[in-house]
TrEMBL record:
UniProt cross-references to Pfam families, sorted A to Z: N_methyl (PF07963)
Keyword annotations of the record: Membrane, Transmembrane, Transmembrane helix
PROSITE patterns: PROKAR_NTER_METHYL
Organism name: SAR92 bacterium BACL26 MAG-121220-bin70
Protein name as annotated: Type II secretion system protein GspH
Bilayer-crossing regions: 20-44
Length: 203
């Protein structure tokens, strides 16, 4: 093959291109990767925050249902935490009604199922006396007409109760938090409007 300046220039150009990226090009690529990673991380965090916020809103609606039923039916409605016997973790919140001097689990509304990362804490004022006195347990069975379920052989004692006169006992707040988030949601009863108020905070 004969040597020619054209062939030489083409070869030199190929060699320059094959030497790789320049420092500026590498910095630009790194900057783009960092920006995309930050955007992805922010999007993921926002998605989780929306999921946590949605669960808090659903819990607020669920408790407000109990308050409204208590007012309409003239009966106290309570909330009890059910836990996993193996993991000792709260799995759901169940509604109770005070019926025939007993706290009885109800089938409606259905229990509020907690998320796998959800934690519920009851920051309530301690009471020396029982909220409402209970009689000895009896086998009442299932009463479909009133949505009552009383298969438990032991006393059911609610963490808190909605009263027909528009108050809750005991006074305090319910804290909903999540294992992988600093967000915490507080549910506080407002006596003036007889409603639960939802507040969000960062630990």
């Amino acid at each position: 093959m004969l040597y020619s300046p054209a062939n030489s220039n083409a070869y030199l150009g190929f060699m320059k291109r094959s030497q790789g990226f320049t420092l500026i090009e590498l910095l630009i690529v790194v900057a783009i990767v960092v920006i995309l990673s930050a955007i992805s991380g922010l999007a993921i965090n926002q998605a989780f925050d929306r999921r946590y916020s949605a669960e808090a809103d659903k819990l607020l609606i669920w408790m407000q249902q109990l308050s409204e039923r208590s007012s309409l039916e003239g009966a106290a409605y309570g909330v009890v935490t059910e836990t996993d016997n193996d993991r000792r973790e709260a799995t759901q919140l169940r509604a109770l009604v005070y019926f025939n001097n007993r706290w009885i689990a109800v089938t409606s509304p259905e229990p509020f199922v907690l998320g796998t990362e959800s934690n519920v804490d009851w920051d309530m004022d301690m009471q020396e006396e029982e909220l409402l006195p209970q009689s000895q347990p009896q086998a009442l069975g299932l009463m479909d007409s009133d949505g009552l379920k009383a298969t438990e052989k032991e006393f059911l004692l609610p963490e808190m109760a909605f009263l027909p006169d528009g108050y809750i006992e005991p006074q305090g707040a319910i804290q909903l938090s999540f294992e992988s988030s600093e967000l915490t949601y507080s549910f506080v009863w407002d006596d003036e409007v007889s409603m639960m108020i939802l507040e969000s905070n960062i630990l």
